[in-house]
Amino acid sequence: MRPPPVDQLVELRSYEIVPGGVPAFVEHFEAHFLASQAALGMDIVGQFTVPGDAARFVWVRRFRDPARRADALAQFYGGPVWKEFGPRANELMVDHTDVHLLVPHPSGPPFAPGQVPRDQPRTVVIATYDLGDAELPAGAMSRELAAAGASGVTELGRLVTAGVPNDFPRLPVHEDVTVGVWLLADPSGGAAAVTLAQAVAGEGLSVRTMPVTPTFRSTLG
């Protein structure tokens, strides 16, 4: 599969947190790591908890200038905010290595163009397709989404593995798999979006679906 042009990079980061530690981690993360990363040119576009998994925190970080990713990360993780507040974050984390480095796929909507208003509670479903050498099933996604219009499910983005070297190896990413990620918002709790994602997988792909709940300060959701 040939990846799309790299005009922005997106990290989908899924962390295992110590038992019972997710609320404390969310509070710590949002208090200290949102504005401080934004000041260095990084967008934290989504933070999520996972219903039924009290030890999971998922977040999405975007780099609008891919060439500055390594420098921005070096400044943050070598800077005063991480020096002061990073140790507490590390105490609460069990594993931080489940990370996909992605780019938006041109078949999808603009990815996280800005603050997403939420006038009602919504569940986000993260559908991850194992692509291998296959292309993202963009046509099937569009057809299934149109057919499910009455469900209220909307898409937040289509992303695929970036296929570029990880220029900040201190933070590992998956480099041995090629995936497509479909982000769907579902006002009814996630079941309709899961069914939609699985219907696309019926084209011959395997898919893992994860319904997640946006935190109060998440802009994606």
Write the layout of secondary structure elements.
Blueprint: E1 9-17, H1 22-32, H2 35-38, E2 42-50, E3 53-63, H3 69-77, H4 80-92, E4 93-104, E5 123-130, H5 138-147, E6 154-161, E7 179-186, H6 191-201, E8 206-214
Antiparallel strand pairs: 1-3, 1-4, 2-3, 2-8, 4-6, 5-7, 5-8, 6-7
Helix pairs in contact: 1-4, 5-6
Question: What is the string of SSEs from the N terminus onward?
Answer: EHHEEHHEEHEEHE
Instruction: State the helicity in percent bands.
Output: 25-40%
Integer average pLDDT: 92
Going by helix content, strand content and strand pairing, the class is alpha+beta
Low-confidence stretches: none
The strand count comes to 8
Largest sheet descriptor: 8 strands, antiparallel, barrel
Largest sheet, spatial ordering of strands: 1-3-2-8-5-7-6-4
**Percent in strands:** 25-35%
| SS element count, helices | 6
Give a quick set of tags describing it.
alpha+beta, 8 strands, 221 residues, eight-stranded antiparallel β-barrel
Give an account of the 3D structure.
The model has no long low-confidence stretch (mean pLDDT 92). The protein has 221 residues and is an alpha+beta fold. A hairpin with a 2-residue loop joins strand 2 (42-50) and strand 3 (53-63). 26% of the residues lie in helices and 33% in strands. The chain has an 8-stranded antiparallel beta barrel.
Brief account:
This protein is of the alpha+beta class and 221 residues long. Helices cover 26% and strands 33% of the residues. The protein has helices spanning 22-32, 35-38, 69-77, 80-92, 138-147, 191-201, and strands at residues 9-17, 42-50, 53-63, 93-104, 123-130, 154-161, 179-186, 206-214.
